[in-house]
Hints:
Shape: rod-shaped
Oligomer: single chain
Largest sheet: 5 strands, antiparallel
Radius of gyration: 54 Å
Strand content: 15-25%
Structural class: alpha+beta
Number of helices: 12
Distance between the termini: 58 Å
Amino acid sequence: MAEKDSSVASLQRRMFEALTLVSVLAAIVSVVAATFVFRSSIVADAHVQLARECAVVGSLVEESADPVASLSALDFGDARVTLIAADGTVVFDNKVAIHQLSNHSDRPEVEQAQRNGTGASERQSQTLGFVSIYEAVRLDDGRVLRIAEDRAGVLALLWSSVGMVFAVLASMIVLSWFASRALARRLVRPILEIDPTEPDAEAPYRELAPLVSHLKTQNAQLEDQMERLRDADAVRQEFTSNVTHELKTPIASIMGASELIRDGIVRPDDIPDFAARIYGDARRLSALVSDILTLSKLDETERSRDRGLLGQAQKCDLFMTARDACDRLGDRAQAGRVMLTLDGDVVAVRGYPRLLDELVGNLIDNAIRYNVMGGSVAVTVGTKPGGAPFVRVKDTGVGIPEEDQQKVFERFYRVDKSRSRASGGTGLGLAIVKHAAKVHGATINMQSTFGKGTTIEVTFPPYVEAPSAEELEESLRN
């Protein structure tokens, strides 16, 4: 099993850390927010309570002949009670000596009480973490009675319950750790279970749909490439086997005939026949080797996409190419009593002269080879509407059965094996035609009726004049 790369971040770990951090921060924020809410509730309750006490004590002060004595006699606990004259002078305070207190007319709660009848305010106490809550009420004679209490602020509340707060936070952190770990695993597990090799694989999350689709596409492309490689390997093996077989046949014939001549077994009168057999097999062997080399070069060109292996593409006259092929094969046509005709006019194509000659020559050679006595081969060169050059070879030969028409362009495939070998065919002619047409960007159209003949038409792209060196330099400059 491959070792895990520690330099690559783990999605599960990152999710776990993020969830844990969010959970811890949420716990802290929740505790602080709860403390603020609790503190606000305490302050609100304190205001209500002090307002009630102000009303009760105010009634007592108004009914008392000596308010100061009455207030001094009462025990207010931790509450601070202050009686303030209408001009702001402190008349009574149960916590601080009145001579130490300044005028209170500017106190917010006193101003509100003088103006509205009641007043309230809050001020931070000198004691850290506490807040002083004030409630004041205006009496009938204009004096103001104020009662105050210190209540714990947020910091004091947190400090007073620091143990409980830490316990809650610790519990929430531990719970968050386990919950985050379990949740991260649960979220990541469907991702790890994605199998892109399955054609029906589905994305566990909508955000992963493009990735899964891309993986499935890549997997399909990989399978297609593997299938092509397997097919190519099978073709290579079959090609090697066929080449070996095709080479052995003429070599064995040459060796057998020459051995008989060497050992003096052949009568002098039969030597010319044996020499002709050796010559014929040697020509067949030469043609086979030539075709194999041509196909190998075409294969290498297609594999490397380097057409420089074929030489320099140039302007070629398709009609002249067809005429040269007809002149070269004229004797064979006469020997087989096949009438060979050429029709058309000068047509320019951009291509490789030798390869075009192989293409046209193989088409004509096949048409003659698989013809009948007294048959005909008509070669036509022309231009289709739109400027596409074409060469058409039509014969009145044996034709090709429908089930074999898609196979005749395969290497060493012969519809009539005995006829092909007897006439010296290599079985590679139409394979060369197919690859040569592909190199030139041409298309092949074949129509054949068994027993009546075959027509094969190769259509090339319209000829475009190649730019000159000056034109290329000018285009680069612009």
